[in-house]
Amino acid sequence: MSKRALLEVIALDAEDAVAAQAGGADRLELVTDMAADGLTPSRADFAAIRAAVDIPLRVMLRLADGFAAGDVAALVRRARELRAEGADEFVLGFLDETGGADLGAVEAVVDALDGCRWTFHRAIDRAADRDALRKQLADLPGLDTYLTAGAAGGVDEGLPTLVAEAARGGEPGYGPTLLVGGGLRLEHLPRLRGAGLAAFHIGGAARPHGWGAPLSAEAVAAWRSALDAR
């Protein structure tokens, strides 16, 4: 029998977090400002969410739209503030002007995380060379997950890449978990699960009425049920 799949859900506030946990989410990605594709939440928002639920929280470290690091010193300060508040899992990812990993920025932020686990997010889907990026990051402490759709255009476009990368799990740079997200739909699950993928990330799929409406525990539960049925 397949192992239970991990379901990660984007949460913007404590109300979202409670609904996501009630629907069966295993972990939350905490962000603010989805108009900018998800930025770092405040220390107070993190504290409120941490008090509201007891499942793991991964906190976004990103201060502006896009995949450039911007003000690295400010990112490091925010990381340290969140660590001081009790955050112990994170999400980040920065590219340089060539489309490679911005190692200087990533290493500076990771150093501030002091060994915490973290996800390199969908910046990998905009990388000039996915394989090269993985090898750039392979030795960084705490990296245990890549959030990816397999392609910038989403899972529809990236399915072949996801399946191919899933088969490379024992190779250098391919140890971290593939967390599939970005245009993910329920009908993608049979092929992805069949390829051995077991971690999934949803945002808009948990909000049938859009980002301006509350997160739906029922929508999360539908994903939980679909994953548990396989």
Automatic annotation (TrEMBL):
SUPFAM superfamilies: CutC-like
Superkingdom of source: Bacteria
Pfam families recorded: CutC (PF03932)
Gene3D superfamilies associated with the record: Copper homeostasis (CutC) domain
One Gene Ontology molecular-function label: copper ion binding
InterPro entries tied to this protein: CutC-like (IPR005627), CutC-like_dom_sf (IPR036822)
Family classification: Belongs to the CutC family.
Name of protein: Copper homeostasis protein cutC homolog
Native species: Streptomyces longispororuber
Lineage of source species: Bacteria, Bacillati, Actinomycetota, Actinomycetes, Kitasatosporales
